[in-house]
Specification:
The structure is a single chain. With 233 residues, the protein is α/β, with parallel strands linked by helices. It contains 7 helices and 12 strands. The chain has 2 domains: 4-139 and 223-229, Rossmann fold (3-Layer(aba) Sandwich), CATH 3.40.50; 148-217, ACT domain (Alpha-Beta Plaits), CATH 3.30.70. It has helices at residues 2-9, 20-33, 46-62, 73-82, 118-127, 159-168, 206-211, and strands at 39-42, 67-70, 96-99, 103-104, 110-111, 131-136, 150-154, 173-176, 193-198, 216-219, 221-222, 227-232. Helix 3 links the parallel strand 1 (39-42) and strand 2 (67-70). The structure holds ribulose-5-phosphate. Ribulose-5-phosphate (5RP) is lined by residues 43-47, 99-102, 112-118, 121. The site of ribulose-5-phosphate has 17 residues, from helix 3 and helix 5. It holds the Pfam family Rib_5-P_isom_A.
Length: 233
């Protein structure tokens, strides 16, 4: 079908996945957890994509019935391509959710949002009774902020104000995230900007402090969420 083939052209995961073998092990593990008739939240990123491949395989070979609530348009398009039925948070609540992360500390606090889908990912995780975070060893850090800045999704007109407030909270540096391979900034699915903020001290109340700034839609800190972390060596 013409529509499907043009859809395929926009899906470009294949050669760009880091630590692919570890992520494939996680993908198989999460796919085995899926039970007949469940509704499952799927975050975003390459680990989630690989898990969807493994779930699609079970749908094909075992005639498993499963419905996915995707956290991004990209993941939704993958579900279309793989023939995985979808629904939305308007229709129902997920039985459980799986997602990746960029950093995980020893207390299971997370930084997410390298893919820019942090708002819908947090909405999905907050709507779920149970969440599995799938990470390879490279994502484990002794403290958050070791490798990545905190992504902050910002309503465009609020950018100068939010940037000042975030710096006043102790960010040593802030940068508007540039779009990959073209001029201009990243624009999220909700039409907002991503401001990356570097903090040397990420404390337990920082997530809520950032969120309280007018113009901040969401941020990529997940402090104290009841998540189960699955690590692949
Ligand atoms: C996207 C995310 C991803 O879960 C995170 O970036 C991990 O991605 P990957 O599985 O590709 O390593 O938070 O917003």
């Amino acid at each position: 079908m013409k529509w499907e083939s043009s859809l395929m052209e926009h899906l470009q995961w294949s050669d760009t996945i880091t630590n692919r073998e570890s992520k494939e092990r996680l993908a198989r593990m999460i796919a085995m957890r899926v039970q007949e008739g469940e509704v499952i939240g799927a975050g975003s990123g390459s680990t989630v994509y690989l898990a969807l491949l493994a779930i699609a395989e079970r749908i094909r070979t075992e005639n498993l019935h499963v419905t996915v609530i995707p956290a991004s348009m990209e993941i939704s398009m993958e579900c279309v391509r793989l023939g995985i039925p979808q629904t939305t948070l308007w229709m129902c609540r997920p039985d459980w959710t799986f997602d990746g992360a960029d950093e995980v500390d020893p207390d299971r606090n997370l930084i997410k949002g390298r893919g820019g889908a942090l708002f819908k990912e947090k909405l999905l995780i907050s709507s779920s009774n149970r969440t599995f975070i799938l990470v390879d060893e490279s994502k484990q850090v002794s403290f958050l902020g070791s490798r990545f800045p905190v992504p902050v999704e910002v309503f465009p007109m609020a950018l100068p104000y939010v940037e000042r407030e975030i710096r006043a909270m102790g960010a040593s540096r802030t940068q508007l995230r540039p779009a990959k391979g073209k001029d201009g900034p990243v624009i999220t699915e909700s039409g907002n900007l991503i401001l990356d903020a570097w903090f040397s001290n990420i404390h337990s109340s920082l997530e809520k402090e950032i969120k309280s700034v007018t113009g901040v839609i969401e941020n990529g800190l997940f402090m104290g969420y009841d998540v189960e972390v699955m690590v692949a060596k």
